[in-house]
Automatic annotation (TrEMBL):
<dbReference type="InterPro" id="IPR000639">
    <property type="entry name" value="Epox_hydrolase-like"/>
</dbReference>
<protein>
    <submittedName>
        <fullName>Pimeloyl-ACP methyl ester carboxylesterase</fullName>
    </submittedName>
</protein>
<feature type="signal peptide">
    <location>
        <begin position="1"/>
        <end position="24"/>
    </location>
</feature>
<feature type="domain" description="AB hydrolase-1">
    <location>
        <begin position="61"/>
        <end position="296"/>
    </location>
</feature>
<dbReference type="InterPro" id="IPR029058">
    <property type="entry name" value="AB_hydrolase_fold"/>
</dbReference>
<keyword id="KW-0732">Signal</keyword>
<dbReference type="InterPro" id="IPR000073">
    <property type="entry name" value="AB_hydrolase_1"/>
</dbReference>
<keyword id="KW-0378">Hydrolase</keyword>
<dbReference type="GO" id="GO:0016787">
    <property type="term" value="F:hydrolase activity"/>
</dbReference>
<dbReference type="Pfam" id="PF00561">
    <property type="entry name" value="Abhydrolase_1"/>
</dbReference>
Amino acid sequence: MGRGAYAALTAVVLLLAGSAASGAEPPAADKAESRVLPGFSHGTVAVEGTTLHYVRGGSGPPLVLLHGWPQTWWEWAKIMPALAERHTVIAFDLPGAGESSIPSGGYDKVTTAKRIREGVHKLGYTKVSLLGHDTGALVAYPYARDYPAEVVRLAVLETPLSGFGLEDLYGVSFHLGLNQTAAPVPERIIDNDDVPTFLGWLFSGARHPDRIDQAAFFSAYSSPARRTAGYEYYRAFAGDAANNQANAHKRLPMPVLAMGAEFAFGPLVANSFSQVGNDVRGVVAPDSGHWIAEENTAFLDACAELFFGPQGVPAPSPELANCVA
């Protein structure tokens, strides 16, 4: 097996694996710790079935950031200050993660996208660009597909789409099977004391694990309820795939940046999203594993500046050519 294919397949070990859900908000002691990012403010917004936590800062056209697992909005902390120089940046915690409340259901990506969209509207924005990583990218897709007039540009990082390639990789990593297994199997296998070992092992597969604030995410998933919320996102995968396939005729009309990492999914992201979009630009982030925003922040920032910026700005290097607006 070639190096690129092996890297793409082993990236499944790093992809999305599950975290946690009960039907009620956990005690205050179990909530994720608020982290301070200079120039940004925290807030919450009530939406149908839950309350979303967000962090907002900057000025300019709105750019919504959606994180993956096993992370929270904090995965974007290194890149948010630079993005905020050109955009109003709104980084949400997905329902059940971080400081967002834990809904009793609705972990399919269509429902999650509707909740994020409702939060966006209540914050006063009707047309935004989206940047999603991992689980967040799976949520960003139905947002853009179902509300195309409200999404200017879409960038997806490090995941093939359910129904269009992700399920073909299930057998490579036990995590995808485990996290989709009905309760209480994953819940009883991964206990509170196991979190640093389990997540630390996942992060150790990064190209640069030392660049990831692992302790922040160990803390964020130290609650059994939050781990279950993550599992529920996985348990919804089969329904997500069926929905995506049934609605694939609603091709994405906006430009789509599909970025994989050199040492993870590489071109598989663009190969997947090209099946549902009319203008998909494939990019491979060099010297990075699954967590691009943290492992190669400078490259992601340079690409985002081009893609979400004005048209006509040339790429400074060949590897950024497909990032051009």
